[in-house]
Specification:
22 strands, Penicillin V Acylase, Chain A, 18 helices, binds zinc ion, alpha+beta, 569 residues, six-stranded antiparallel beta sheet, twelve-stranded mixed beta sheet
């Protein structure tokens, strides 16, 4: 189906949406195509948020907007306009919503972190929190593993068949919300790089996360389980979306993600640069972060950080060494699989890895459950839980997808995805609900996910010549590109100083992988507190200091350069 500024079709469980143009126009087209799905999501949120937080979706929407609407408007005006467009497009498509609801929905992954900050309950994030906090079972379902996302790896050099980059990722999530992450969104913004990503309806960032950009970047992440600290700065959804649109280097991504870091949705971010054949993993805590990078090796993601400062100081009960748990088990299994497929990693072998069901704890070949790379909590009795507040038996939770990509696919703005379980096992709602009456309330919202084939997606109207020309303009002096990336940020650039180089032997860090540790003592983040906001009854007045104004001018100038480059193609 085609409307102005947009194009969309359904295929094998996915909803492909391509939008282009100025923020409001592309937002409108996106919202229009999402209207039907967003109606369902609203019903789910009205139930699930109340059940999980004891507050209504309406109340949280209000609180989120009190905290973030002004920041969005002032520091992320482009994203704000896009979300305004989304709200209008949804309404045009028959779904009643507001800009406030779209802002709140885009904050969804940050809610568990922010909520513990605004409430007294301190209910933790993905296995974190205090075990003496009263929790309903749904709290256990929501808070303690809602963010148990995902398995991932990146490999390059001797590890892959052609020496170029391979990336693979699957998302574990609660089925009640994860079943909506079936959107493949292709955005061609007027400014910045073109993006194709997996996402959920009406999200302006990926959330799951898997994306490629016309800067030759492939990106993904796995969350850091049990992460505790939070500081109200800039939401992760905005930081990563700006990186996707405006960064062309690994350093640029690191800078966008670290700058204004709130600790929300704390992840091991994995960024591959096909231009330099380099892969990197940013373990992003709040006070601490570290960066691993290599042109010959592999990096894996399994929901626990290698960086001991994050793992010990910022995370509660990481599961790093516990193979009864999904973190420890997949840390072992992914290494085994990397060794097994060393030198023969291709798109096909990457699919096999994502579908792997080997249980390292029980040494069983085909035992799909919480510990396997392809995750199936819904089949797991959890009799080997190491902690009582960990995910409950047979939770409606697990892998809902699989996506693989390599340098060649990325340089054709393409990747291969499977919706439903990575292994293709269908999820049958009626059968599951009959066997698990304890989840009958959630069952009301669950949908079947039949077995689907792997499906290749490419951006709409792809033109290789145009793409290559565009990419070539991006491949200039790497130092210049890093400076460009940093200048394009909507906030004051960071200065990062190397704190310590890691020379100790760790099992996953050979000589080919460089690791650098950073901490916030060496990060000079300057909050954009030049923005003065004063509320008068029904109006909010915003004034910006001349310094911010000059800075914004600089950013606009930078954007203009990107734009001119793009128009030249
Ligand atoms: Zn499976």
């Amino acid at each position: 189906m085609k409307i102005k500024n947009g194009y969309s079709y359904k295929k094998n469980g996915w909803l492909y949406i391509s939008v282009k143009g100025r923020p409001k126009e592309r937002g409108f087209a996106y919202g229009y195509y999402c209207a039907n799905d967003f109606k369902e999501i609203q019903k789910m949120l009205n139930y699930y948020i109340f059940e999980s937080y004891g507050h209504t979706w309406k109340y949280l929407t209000k609180k989120i907007n009190e905290d973030f609407k002004t920041i969005t408007k002032v520091q992320y005006s482009e994203l704000y306009e896009e979300m305004e467009g989304i709200a209008q497009g949804c309404i045009a498509g028959g779904c009643q919503t507001t800009i406030d609801e779209i802002i709140a929905w885009n904050f969804y992954c940050s809610i568990p972190y922010w909520f513990s900050f605004i409430s007294d309950s301190h209910i933790g994030k993905e296995g974190g929190g205090k075990s003496d906090t009263p929790q309903s079972y749904i709290h256990i379902a929501q808070k303690n593993h809602a963010n148990d996302k995902c398995s991932a790896f990146m490999a390059v050099g001797d590890w892959t068949k052609d020496g170029k980059i391979i990336v693979a990722h699957n998302s574990f999530t609660d089925y009640i919300d994860g079943q909506y992450s079936n959107v493949i969104l292709d955005i061609t913004p007027t400014n910045g790089y073109r993006i194709m990503m997996q996402t959920s309806p009406c999200w302006i960032w990926s959330g799951t996360d898997f994306f490629i950009t016309s800067a030759g970047i492939i990106g993904t992440e796995t969350t850091i389980g049990g992460f505790q600290p939070y500081e109200k700065k800039l939401p992760i959804g905005y930081r990563i979306r700006m990186a996707m649109q405006y960064a062309s280097t690994i350093d640029g991504y690191v800078s966008f993600l670290v700058n204004g870091n709130s600790g929300d949705y704390a992840n091991s971010w994995m960024i591959a640069d096909t231009k330099t054949n380099e892969i990197a993993r940013l373990e992003l805590g709040l006070k601490y972060h570290s960066v691993d990078r290599t042109k010959n090796g592999y990096l894996i993601g399994f929901n626990a950080p290698y960086d001991p400062r994050i793992r010990i100081v910022e995370v509660n009960n990481s599961g790093f060494y516990d193979i009864r748990r999904h973190q420890g088990a997949r840390r072992v299994r992914l290494v085994q699989l990397m060794e097994k497929y060393k030198g023969i990693l291709t798109i096909e072998t990457a699919k096999k890895i994502l579908a792997d069901h080997y249980d390292v704890y029980l040494k069983k070949n085909n035992n799909p459950g919480s510990r396997t790379v392809c995750s199936h909590y819904d089949l797991d009795a959890r009799e080997y839980m190491s902690q009582a507040d960990r995910p409950v038996p047979y939770a409606p939770h697990g892998a809902v997808d699989g996506i693989v990509c390599d340098s060649n696919l990325a340089n054709n703005m393409s990747f291969v995805g499977r919706f439903g379980n990575s292994c293709g096992t269908p999820f049958k709602k009626d059968k599951y609900c009959k066997e698990n009456i304890q989840f009958s309330n959630i069952c009301y919202f669950l949908k079947d996910r039949p077995s689907q084939p792997w499906t290749k997606f490419q951006v709409h109207n792809f033109n290789k010549k145009v793409f290559d020309k565009y990419l070539n303009t991006t491949i200039k002096n790497k130092k210049d590109r890093i400076v460009d990336d940093i200048k394009r940020q909507g906030v004051v650039p960071l200065e990062i100083k190397l704190e310590e180089k890691h020379n100790l032997f760790t099992p996953n860090h050979d000589d080919n992988i460089s690791r650098k540790y950073y901490s916030d003592e060496n990060i000079h983040y300057i909050p954009n507190n030049n923005i003065v906001s004063s509320k008068h009854a029904s109006t909010t007045k915003i004034s910006i200091s001349s310094r911010t104004y000059k800075k914004n001018k600089l950013i606009q100038k930078e954007k203009k350069i990107v734009n001119t480059r793009k128009n030249r193609k």
